[in-house]
Amino acid sequence: MDTYRLAMIGFGNVGQGFAQILAERGPQLARAYGLNLKIVAVCDLLKGSLCDPAGLDPAALLAAVQSSGRLDSIPAPHRGWDALGTIAKVDADALIELSYTDLKTGEPAITHLRAALERGLHIVTTNKGPIALCYPDLKAIADEHGVEIGAEGTVMSGTPSLRFGQELLAAAGITRIQGIVNGTTNYILTQMENGMDYTAALAGAQAKGYAEADPTGDVEGYDAAGKVVILANLLMGASLDMAAVDRTGITALTPQDIAAAQSAGARWKLIGRVESENGKIIASVRPTRLPLAHPLASVGGATNALTFTTDLLGDVTVVGPGAGRLETGYALICDLLAIHRKQRQ
Amino acid sequence: MDTYRLAMIGFGNVGQGFAQILAERGPQLARAYGLNLKIVAVCDLLKGSLCDPAGLDPAALLAAVQSSGRLDSIPAPHRGWDALGTIAKVDADALIELSYTDLKTGEPAITHLRAALERGLHIVTTNKGPIALCYPDLKAIADEHGVEIGAEGTVMSGTPSLRFGQELLAAAGITRIQGIVNGTTNYILTQMENGMDYTAALAGAQAKGYAEADPTGDVEGYDAAGKVVILANLLMGASLDMAAVDRTGITALTPQDIAAAQSAGARWKLIGRVESENGKIIASVRPTRLPLAHPLASVGGATNALTFTTDLLGDVTVVGPGAGRLETGYALICDLLAIHRKQRQ
Question: How far is A219 from chain B (nearest CA, A)?
Fold first, then answer.
């Protein structure tokens, strides 16, 4: 039985989902995979920071946050370290980086991830910012230190899409990847087909917690563009930046556009796409009218889907959740198990 | 660079697809994965049998079969060994078993696979017979000899479905797997929706090479039942036999049934299904009326699809080709790369 000691930066929704999975299934995962996942540090800007080399009970962490919104009630030999202090001092095997997403600067996550890699820790994150903005750099540091990067949760949350592409499809020759990678806009478009106008559909998405108060990142296609960059750079060997993505959001779509598509037997979807054209990688995010028979047309609500076009298999599509607390928490489990498999080589 | 010496039993469609992939992409795969795949023996009942420890050129094998239907023109130090002779004498790392499929006895493949495992060879096959009928036995022999079994091509041809489930979804807790796993019946049902009756649709499938002269295996659901057993035993820890599958084919479906579904906004699909119910594994194959909005309803023609229901991710669906020469050949590549990854652990 191997043990991975985990330091967590950020203990919001995803971090709590991860802790819940460990609380409910940790022993079962350990038996099945020979890997004991032990949280030894948690550092959260709002909830507090603590470190215990003997291990922190995930159920106790959850209970503390639920009752007080903070981690103060949990006994621990070290407290109050900030994120960089935690990374510098903790005795850990992997850093789980779950600070907030900034698709313009990638910070503070990039700084955290670099520091962890330099210390020889594996890094696992569901944060699109650093992976979309600086994956090639992070990968170089990781290779130099013989450690791994897990980023499964940055695209389609816990639906295994990056590892599906990397581990199971890459040898078939991936020439194009396209799909629905933003659940918020897909939900809004589904509601508009049911007769709502854009403003009402957006308000509904905000009420459900799908869209943020400032919805720009979703509705203007920045979130999808970040995911397209990640797909290009991790699965197609590109080194694109955000500016390389030809990006159009859904805000200009009118109820008339939606109705016209419906009466033509079609449906609007915000499609992220990356493809190899004459040896060059071309990337885009734009509203696309798909015939109803298209496999991506029937993907409704907050579900995500990606179609990989390959030389040997033609099209292979994966459909699954694109968000959710346990779902995204599972992405971290999937990455840690994959790193464990790889490290035993 | 590691080298895997491969002995092939059977050089029909799938074997030739595999050889074509090696001829076109062998060096590229070797560079990308550090694995040199070298065919050292081919034994085919009709085309002849030869063995060359120095390696057989896959392009030359294909050219010989194309020009003469046989392998006689290729120089080789050993010729004329039968299947068991080849397995007993060849100096190889893996056996690729591609003899014909018999879902009643599993032979001659079971005998070939046992003999190879006993000699310490990995086995890789796209043949449902032995995997559906005797996987637990074969796995025990493989474990005893420290070798691996690859069976990706037995379900959904080269679409990575078994490894997707085993390597990327299993930790999410698979509770049910259901889907369209027989392309022939799905093609017939799609044609019946377009207005054909069953007899005409079957004749069309036979003309296209999708259905065999005796279509019983497909239309009565035996092929799908074999795949359901494989999914249950490889992904859900069951040890079902064929008789445990509650099986109904599509032969009783009438044009009236099809029309009635259509006017109710639904569609008939032959659904293979395995699920865990109160700790017991229940398996079935039966025509099922799905609402059009169901993710499996839009999977038409010879395409296959599987939906995995999991504790942590809910439903995750994979859609891809269910047949084809290169597609099924890719399943062997996918398995050999996975075995190579595992062996380096």
Answer: 25
Q: Does the pLDDT value for residue A258 go beyond 70?
A: yes
d(CA A103, CA A105): 6
Q: With 0-12 CB in 10 A as exposed, 13-18 as middle and 19+ as buried, what is B83?
A: buried
DSSP helix/strand/coil, B247: strand
Identify the H or E element spanning A280: strand A280-291
The whole-angstrom distance between residue A102's C-alpha and the CA centroid of its chain comes to 13
CB pairs A-B closer than 8 Å: 124
Residues 6+ apart with CB under 8 A from A34: A1, A2, A340
pTM for the whole thing?
A: 0.96
Residues 6+ apart with CB under 8 A from B113: B95, B97, B123, B125, B130, B138
Q: Is A152 exposed, middle or buried (0-12, 13-18, 19+ CB in 10 A)?
A: buried
Sheet of A94-97: strand order equals A78-79, A48-51, A35-44, A2-9, A94-97, A122-125, A149-150
- Biggest CA–CA distance in chain B, Å, is 66
**Statement: residue B143 has pLDDT above 80:** yes
**Distance between CA A99 and CA A159 in Å, rounded?**
21
pLDDT at A345: 63
- Cα(A121)–Cα(A118) distance, rounded to whole angstroms? 7
The whole-number average pLDDT for the span B113-127 is: 98
Helix extents (H) in B34-175: 58-68, 83-89, 109-118, 128-145, 162-163
Q: Do B171 and A314 touch (CB under 8 A)?
A: no
At what angle are helices B183-193 and B198-207 packed, to 10 degrees? 130
Alpha-carbon span A139 to B165, nearest angstrom: 27
What residues of B are in contact with residue A235 (Cβ under 8 Å)? none
pLDDT band at A301 (very low <50, low <70, confident <90, very high): confident
Say if residues A141 and A325 touch (Cβ distance below 8 Å).
no
DSSP string covering B180-206, please?
E--HHHHHHHHHHHTT--HHHHHHHHH
Percent of chain A with pLDDT over 90: 91
A47, A128, A227, A269: the active-site residue: A227
In sequence order, the β-bridge partners of residue A37 are A4
CB contacts, 8 Å: B312 with chain A: 21, 158, 326-327, 329-330
